[in-house]
Design goal:
Strand content: 25-35%
CATH architecture of the largest domain: 3-Layer(aba) Sandwich
Number of domains: 2
Helix content: 25-40%
Bound molecules: adenosine-5'-triphosphate, magnesium ion
Number of strands: 22
Structural class: alpha/beta
Largest sheet: 6 strands, mixed
Shape: globular
C-alpha cells in the first residue's frame, strides 16, 4: 500500500533521516522501532506532510505522492496521532475531533450534528463518558489521547499512523486501543505503530521496521517471531540487559515523608503512608485510581484534607512552599507542564533554583551547569549538545531532559510520575540506575508507573491503589505482576 524509499531529511546540524525505506501493506500493523532520536517521528511527519523530505520517494497504492501539507496528507487518506498531542485546549472535544472538517466548516448551525458524530466515534472507542461539549483543556492526558484517536478515525483514513499512542494509557485502555486497531485492520486499514514498549509490538504488530541513527537497519521482520534480544540489539547496536539495579547497598534512614489520612472528595480517600530516606515507594494502579492526584496533593498542588509532613514538619499548601522545603515533582504530562521549548537543554535542566546550589545566597551556576552536563551524559541525551534548543530534540530526549531537572541534586524527596514514559529500552536502564543512585544518597522516592514490572523492579515497597483507596501495602519482593494486576483490575485482596 505504501512504499517509502531513500527518504532523507536534514535539519540544521542533524541528518535526522539518512535514506530510510519503509513498506506497509494494507491491513497490517507495521511497527516502527528505534531508540530516542532514531528518526521515527521525523519519518512519520514526512508522511503527514509536516516535513518535506530532501530526497526520496513515497508511493501510495502504486502512485507517487508528495504530501506537501497536513491537509494534503489527510486528503490522501493518512491520519496521524502525534507523540506530542496537538489538540486545541480551548476548543471542545467535538470541535477538536472535526477540526478542519465538514461539520466544523458549516459553522454553528451544525454544532448538534458535530456533537452527535463525535459521540458516535467516542462510543466506538469505548469512551462514552467523554462528552463532546467538554473543553479539551480540562481532560486528563489519557482522555486527550482518546480524542486524538477519535479525530484520526473521523477522517475515514486508509493509513493511520500512531506515534506512541499507548504512552498516556493504562493497561485496560491499551487493550481497548488494540481492539480498535484490530477492527481497523480487519477493514483493510494499515496502521503504522510506534512504541517503546516491546511487549506491545509482540501483541499487536505484524511486521517490524527498525531505525537506527536515521537509517533503516531491518525491514519488515515478523513481529511475533523475532526475539526481543535481536530487536533490542538492532535498535541499540549492543546487547542491553533490560534489568533493574540490584536491591542491596541501600540503607533506609529517617522518615522523610509522612502522609496521614489524605483525602480529596471523589478522587482518593484516607490515604496514609510514609517514605524513608533512601527508600523507593511505588504506587501501582490504573489511570483514574488516584495515583497522580496523590502525588500532586503531597506536592501541595491539589486541595486535600489530612496531613503531609516532610521531615516531621507539616508542609504548607502551595507549590512554592513545597519546592523550598525540598520536594520535587516530575509530573506526568511533562511536556505541557514543564518545558520551555525555545530554551536550551541546559536551561531546561537547571530551571528553578535549587537549595543545593545556593551558597551565601548566590547560585553556583558553574556547578549547576556541570551537574546538568553530567546528568545529560548519564541519561544519554542526544544530540549531546547542551546549548541546543530543546524544541529540536526528539520526544524521548526531551523527556530525559525534564527528568534530569528533577534528578539534579539538593532535594530530600522526589515524586516521579511515569518517569520512563517515552524513554527507549537502552536509556531506561540508565534512568533506573540514576534513580537508585539518588536513593543511595539518602533521597526518598515516591514513584508512579503504569507499568507494573517497573514498580515491582524499582520500588522497595508498593502501595496498590484502586478507586482512590490503598487496597494493599507490602514489600515489592513479596509481589508479582500477576497478583498486582489482579488487585488493580479486580480489586482482589492479596
Ligand atoms: N525540528 C527539528 N529541528 C532540528 N532537529 C530536529 C527537529 N526535529 C527532530 N530533530 C532531530 O532529528 C533526530 C530524530 O528525531 P525524531 O524526533 O524523529 O526521533 P524519534 O525516533 O521520534 O525519537 P523518540 O523515540 O525520542 O520520540 C533527532 O536527533 C532530533 O534531535
Ligand atoms: Mg518520536
Amino acid at each position: 500500500m505504501l512504499v517509502m524509499k531513500g527518504i532523507v531529511k536534514q535539519f540544521p546540524g542533524v541528518r535526522a533521516l539518512d535514506g530510510v525505506d519503509l513498506d506497509v501493506r494494507a491491513g497490517e500493523v507495521h511497527c516502527l522501532l528505534g531508540q530516542n532520536g532514531a528518526g521515527k517521528s521525523t519519518l512519520i511527519k514526512v508522511l503527514a506532510g509536516v516535513h518535506q523530505p530532501d530526497e526520496g520517494t513515497i508511493s501510495f497504492n502504486g502512485a507517487e505522492v508528495r504530501p506537501g501539507s497536513p491537509i494534503d496528507a489527510i486528503k490522501l487518506g493518512f491520519a496521524t496521532i502525534y507523540q506530542e498531542l496537538d489538540l486545541v485546549d480551548g476548543l471542545s472535544v467535538a470541535e477538536n475531533i472535526f477540526l478542519g472538517h465538514e461539520h466544523a466548516r458549516l459553522g454553528f448551525v451544525n454544532r448538534a450534528a458535530g456533537r452527535r458524530a463525535a459521540r458516535e466515534v467516542l462510543e466506538r472507542l469505548g469512551h462514552p463518558e467523554i462528552r463532546p461539549a467538554t473543553e479539551v483543556g480540562r481532560l486528563s492526558p489519557a482522555a486527550k489521547q482518546v480524542v486524538s484517536m477519535a479525530r484520526a478515525l473521523s477522517h475515514e483514513a486508509k493509513l493511520i499512523i500512531m506515534d506512541e499512542p499507548s504512552a498516556a494509557l493504562a493497561h485496560d485502555e491499551v487493550s481497548n486501543l488494540f481492539r480498535i486497531i484490530r477492527e481497523l485492520t480487519a477493514q483493510g486499514v494499515a496502521v503504522v505503530y510506534i512504541s517503546h514498549r516491546l511487549e506491545e509490538i509482540r501483541e499487536i504488530g505484524d511486521r517490524v521496521t527498525v531505525l537506527k541513527d536515521g537509517r533503516t537497519v531491518a525491514v519488515g521482520l515478523p513481529a511475533r517471531d523475532t526475539p526481543t534480544t535481536q530487536i533490542v540489539s538492532l535498535m541499540t547496536g549492543r546487547n542491553v540487559e533490560y534489568v533493574f539495579p540490584p536491591r542491596g547497598g541501600r540503607e533506609f534512614g529517617e522518615e522523610v515523608l509522612r502522609v496521614e489520612n489524605l483525602s480529596s472528595p471523589g478522587v482518593f480517600k484516607d490515604v496514609s503512608f510514609s517514605v524513608r530516606a533512601g527508600e523507593i515507594v511505588g504506587l501501582a494502579g490504573l489511570v483514574g485510581s488516584g495515583r497522580s492526584e496523590i502525588l500532586e496533593a503531597v506536592y501541595g498542588a491539589r486541595p486535600h484534607t489530612g496531613r503531609v509532613l516532610l521531615d516531621g514538619r507539616q508542609v504548607r499548601r502551595g507549590v512554592v512552599g513545597t519546592v523550598r522545603s525540598g520536594m520535587g515533582l516530575a509530573p506526568e504530562e511533562r511536556k505541557a507542564q514543564a518545558l520551555l521549548l525555545d530554551q536550551s537543554v541546559t536551561a531546561n535542566i537547571t530551571l528553578g533554583t535549587l537549595p543545593g546550589f545556593a551558597r551565601f545566597g548566590w547560585i553556583d551556576r558553574k556547578r549547576e551547569r556541570d551537574e546538568a552536563k553530567r546528568l545529560s551524559e548519564m541519561l544519554d541525551i542526544r544530540p549531546p549538545d547542551p546549548e541546543r534548543p530543546i524544541r529540536t530534540l526528539s520526544g524521548g530526549n526531551q523527556q530525559k531532559a525534564v527528568l534530569a531537572r528533577w534528578l539534579l541534586g539538593g532535594r530530600k524527596l522526589l515524586l516521579l510520575d511515569e518517569p520512563t514514559r517515552g524513554v527507549d529500552v537502552g536509556a531506561r536502564a540508565e534512568l533506573y540506575a540514576v534513580i537508585h543512585d539518588l536513593a543511595k544518597q539518602g533521597i526518598g522516592v515516591l514513584l508512579v508507573s503504569s507499568e507494573v514490572p517497573e514498580v515491582l523492579g524499582l520500588a522497595d515497597r508498593v502501595l496498590v491503589l484502586r478507586e482512590g483507596a490503598v487496597i494493599h501495602e507490602g514489600e515489592a519482593t513479596e509481589l508479582d505482576e500477576h497478583r498486582v494486576l489482579d488487585m488493580i483490575m479486580n480489586g482482589r485482596a492479596a
